[in-house]
Design goal:
Distance between the termini: 49 Å
CATH topology of the largest domain: de novo design (two linked rop proteins)
Number of domains: 2
Largest sheet: 5 strands, mixed, barrel
Number of strands: 7
Order of helices and strands: EEEEEHHHEEHHH
Oligomer: single chain
Strand content: 15-25%
Strand order of the largest sheet: 1-2-3-5-4
Helix content: 25-40%
Shape: elongated
Structural class: alpha+beta
Length: 241
């Protein structure tokens, strides 16, 4: 009997009149692409709803491979979202997470700790009744830890500037434009010492939140090869208060 594989759907797109290709970050094999034949057929077992962004699924991978595409023989949800689909703010965050992960995760590199982090934060977001405006910042910061460029907060001192290129804090302004002001360096440091359950306690206003999100995107551009920015963060700018 084939073993089931857990996965996090990042995105899908139509491949033909009846089929789709899904990009899934799997627990055992890392980021993979799957060709799902007949997903848009009337009586298909593989309904497109299974492949919505950030769905938590488990599936059986079937034998065979077409170029860089894999196949699956069955699929189900490993967790059913309770609030995300009905909450416009949470839904916007989901789209942001999907685009961010799709553009930053390395291909075909398994990382079970990273998988658990994404899985657990998704469930937290779904179940949370607390303020979530700072969740995208928290997620980007923690994701950088797994991607290998988490800021070196042990270099922070009061009134220092965060060097986006080197990932360290400096007592004076770096000789290039890629740095955070003292204000935003302090906010980033405060965020690093705050758990996911206490994000609402950070004293950060809407404009600061938007600016820090933009700076974090720039940080990813400097450290993730081929990362050209995000489009979904513009939606976040309109819904996060």
């Amino acid at each position: 009997m084939a073993d089931k594989t857990k996965g996090i759907v990042l995105q899908h797109f139509r491949y033909s009149d009846t089929s789709l290709i899904a990009k899934i970050f799997t627990e055992q094999s890392g980021l993979q692409s799957y060709l799902v034949k007949g997903a848009f057929s009337k009586h298909s077992r593989f309904k497109p709803a299974f492949f919505q962004p950030m769905n938590l699924v488990e599936f059986v991978e079937s034998s065979g491979k077409q170029r860089d595409l894999r196949f699956m023989s069955e699929i189900s949800l490993s967790y059913h979202f309770q609030s995300i689909q009905q909450n416009p703010v949470k839904n916007a965050i989901i789209m942001f997470m999907s685009e961010l992960l799709h553009k930053s995760l390395p291909d075909q590199e398994p990382d079970q700790q990273l998988f658990s982090f994404i899985n657990d934060t998704l469930v937290w977001l779904d179940l949370s009744d607390s303020a979530i405006a700072d969740f995208p910042l928290y997620f980007m910061l923690e994701l950088s830890r797994y991607l290998g460029f988490y800021p070196k907060f042990n270099s922070y001192q009061e009134s220092s500037h965060f060097d986006l290129m080197e990932g360290v804090f400096k007592p004076s302004v770096p000789g290039h434009p890629y740095f955070l002001t003292r204000e935003y360096s302090t906010l980033l440091t405060q965020l690093s010492f705050t758990s996911i359950d206490h994000m609402a306690e950070i004293a950060i206003n809407q404009e600061q939140r938007r600016q820090l999100l933009q700076e974090m995107i720039r940080y990813y551009q400097l450290h993730v090869p081929g990362f050209k920015g995000l489009q979904s963060h513009e939606i976040l700018r309109t819904v996060l208060r």
